[in-house]
Amino acid sequence: MARIISLETASTNCSVSVYQGSELLVLKEDPSPAYTHGELLHVFMDEALREAGLQWADLDAVAVSKGPGSYTGLRIGVAAAKGLCFALGIPLIAVETLKSMAYQFKDAEGVLIPMLDARRMEAYVAVFDADHNPIGPTRAEIISADSFSKWTAQGPVHLLGSGAEKCREVLTHPNFNFHTDILPGSKEVGLLAADRFEKGMFEDLAYFEPFYLKDFILQKKKQ
Questions:
Q1: Mean pLDDT of all residues in the chain?
Q2: pLDDT in tens, 54-75
Q3: Which domains are assigned to the chain?
Q4: Do the beta carbons of residue 192 and residue 99 sit within 8 Å?
Q5: Which residues lie across from 160 on neighbouring strands?
Q6: What backbone phi and psi angles, to 5 degrees, belong to 84?
Q7: 155 Cβ contact partners less than 8 Å away, ≥ 6 residues apart
Q8: How would you classify the pairing of strands 157-160 and 134-142?
């Protein structure tokens, strides 16, 4: 069974897991809002591997959350993942951040819409059915009273993640359900990566880049 270390840095949650096949061996996380990826990611990687009783050379692949999400967080995670792959000569597996969020929500009826806050009244969103199959594109959605009305007409709609909090006062249809405690995590990245490893779904190390979805805009402080 493949031994895979998985990294999640697309949001405030700095998360590292180690899997052997579909078995979770170790999970290390810091979900604080301080964006601790730069300080803790490599510490967590080293600790997780030691707690799993493995050496770096024992790894068969590295998995990373590809975005969308925090521009800086994604760059840190992908740079660490690619560096490991180059150094160890092992493949890279990329997992869609919003898909990994949808995987945290089980046994629900209706539609799942993972959402990451993109500032102001915008969120990165994707739409999945109750079996976690994508039924809508990943996009940046400006939240209005009409957002997702296509889905509320059909039944329950579960809004998952940090982007859901800003929607409470705008999206008032009774079919909306808000689950704001869901953060992207390496636990789900690793679970999805185990399946992709078996299918040989690897990235081109030389050309792989995070899925930013939007261009980075440097904002200056007001004088």
A1: 94
A2: 999 999 999 999 999 999 999 9
A3: 3-97+183-198 (3.30.420.40), 105-179 (3.30.420)
A4: yes
A5: 114, 179
A6: -60, -45
A7: 109, 110, 111, 175
A8: unpaired
